[in-house]
Amino acid sequence: MPIVPDDKDWTWVLRRPCPECGFDASALAPEGVAPLLRANASDWVRILQRPDEELRRRPADDHWAPLEYACHVRDVCLLFRTRLELMLREDDPLYPNWDQDATAVEERYGEQDPAAVSAQLRVAADELASAFEGVTGAQWERRGRRSDGAGFSVAGFGRYFIHDPVHHLYDVTGRRGA
Fold first, then answer.
1. Which of the chain's ends, N or C, has fewer CB atoms near its CB within 10 Å?
2. Which helix (H) or strand (E) holds 162?
3. Distance CA 13, CA 39 (A)
């Protein structure tokens, strides 16, 4: 599910607060990504303890169910860890394309076990947070590119990334900000 479907320029998230969730990535230091990710993962673990029928119910046709969002956040953490490792290991890597909507269907997000997703999300978030904590000095300026050619520094990549789980927590809870 796109976060701001009418905005074709993805870099807006690095320049101004999100008009929906209120998160302001421009105000976050790159070193703030890891602690924010860990706090966000804890919120998802609590959400995944809700009754099963609540976790699997979509509130609207254009929004996933809480369980589907949690699966997506887990997979985004896994994907971004791989991409971060590429950025730290290679010069200006080009990431393979990832179709989040196809993945949701293929992996049957809405049918997964909430307890398993909770454990997997916690591990994926912790491993990515640890990877961000390991970034030092000039590594924050290393570069990488999405499949559409859009480029990131590691610092911008982290701030861009963290908007996703924060925004999806808003999608589920209605709570704005980080």
1. N
2. helix 154-173
3. 20
DSSP H helical ranges for 17-90 = 33-47, 52-56, 66-89
Cβ neighbours around 26 below 10 Å, total: 11
CA distance 29 to 140: 11
CATH code 3.40.920.10 for 23-173: no
Q: What's the pTM value of the predicted model, to 2 decimals? A: 0.91
Query: What backbone phi and psi angles, to 5 degrees, belong to 151?
Result: -100, 150
Terminal C-alpha separation, the chain: 20
| Nearest C-alpha neighbor of 126 from the set 42, 61, 38, 52 | 38
152 bridge partner residues: 144
Angle at 53 between CA 173 and CA 41, to 5 degrees: 40
Query: 71 with 112: CB under 8 angstroms?
Result: yes
Predicted confidence at residue 10, as pLDDT, reads 64
Q: What are phi and psi of 19, to 5 degrees?
A: -65, -20
Percent of the chain with pLDDT strictly greater than 70: 93
Q: What is the pLDDT of residue 97?
A: 85
Give me 175's structure tokens.
């709570």
